[in-house]
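Quick check before the chapter quiz. The format below is the same one you will see on the exam, so make sure you can read both the input and the output lines.
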Amino acid sequence: QVQLVESGGGLVQPGGSLRLSCGAPGFTLDDYSIGWFRQAPGKEREGVSCISSIDSTTKFADSVKGRFTISRDSPKKMVFLRMNSLKPEDTAVYYCAIPSEPWTSCSLSYHDGGYDYWGQGTQVTVSS
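Here is the expected output.
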C-alpha cells in the first residue's frame, strides 16, 4: 500500500505563492505519473496538473496555466506544485495521486484518470 503525503499548504494573500510537496515514504515515485487535484467546499474534485512518467509531459487546467508549475525532484523522491499569483478561487484542499501501474501517461480527469492512491490533502486558503 502506497501512502502519499502532501505538505506546504497554508494561508496566503492574493498574488502570493506556495509550493506544495508530495512524497511517499519508502516508495519511489519516478516510475509513476503524478496528478495534483483540488476540491473546494461544495464542488467536485478537479484536476489541476499532472506529470507523466513516460516522457515528463506536463498538463495544466486552463484556470492555472501560466501560474502553476509541476516538477519532480528524483533524489528527494518528491513532486512539487509551485503556485504563483494565487487567487481566492484557488482556495481548496489539494491532493496528489498516483495510479497503481507505472509508466503511464498522465490525466487531469478525476473520474477516468486511473488514479488509485491519494494523499490526505493539504489546505490552501487564499485570502486577504
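If your answer matched, good. The chain has a mean pLDDT of 95.
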